[in-house]
């Protein structure tokens, strides 16, 4: 007799559980807005942290923020998608800016701290991946953030 009540109790519990699942309100997930940011430096009219939603190109940011009259827009490829938490730098125009995509070995070696081996690494890199921003120079082994910061005013694409 005790066993009958236990089985009956389990059946009632299962029925209650099923009914509860059907009556439970649907919980809708709230859409979270994912903000990305980039650090703007150099000739942007607004420098510092810039937050945005979705996917943006460098040209989108230039159009929204603006750049000074002295901005060297040859140093960026406008249609490149901006990566979250990256840094964008637009240098001022200079007569003797060195093109990462076109300079010969001797021109690259004229940069302070760039020797023959580093110049060859730059040339090898651009043959496989043309530079889209001057920040891409940090993809070359031996060129870190400090070297990039020292060289960026003298570079263009």
Automatic annotation (TrEMBL):
SMART domains: HhH1. SUPFAM superfamilies: RuvA domain 2-like. InterPro entries: Endo/Exo/Phosphatase_dom_1 (IPR051675), Hlx-hairpin-Hlx_DNA-bd_motif (IPR003583), RuvA_2-like (IPR010994). It holds the Pfam family HHH_3. Residues 106-125, 135-154 form the Helix-hairpin-helix DNA-binding motif class domain. This is Helix-hairpin-helix domain-containing protein.
């Amino acid at each position: 007799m005790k066993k009958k009540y236990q089985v009956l109790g389990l059946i009632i519990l299962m029925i209650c559980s099923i009914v509860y699942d059907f009556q439970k309100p649907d919980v809708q997930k709230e859409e979270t807005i994912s903000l990305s940011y980039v650090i703007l430096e150099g000739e942007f009219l607004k420098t510092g942290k810039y937050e945005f939603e979705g996917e943006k190109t460098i040209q989108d940011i230039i159009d929204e923020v603006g750049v000074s009259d002295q901005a060297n827009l040859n140093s960026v490829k406008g249609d490149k998608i901006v990566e979250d938490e990256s840094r964008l730098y637009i240098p001022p125009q200079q007569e003797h800016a060195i093109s990462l995509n076109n300079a010969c070995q001797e021109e690259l070696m004229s940069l302070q701290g760039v020797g023959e081996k580093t110049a060859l690494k730059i040339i090898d890199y651009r043959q496989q991946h043309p530079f889209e921003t001057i920040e891409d120079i940090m993809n070359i082994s031996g060129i870190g953030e400090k070297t990039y910061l020292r060289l960026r005013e003298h570079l263009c694409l």
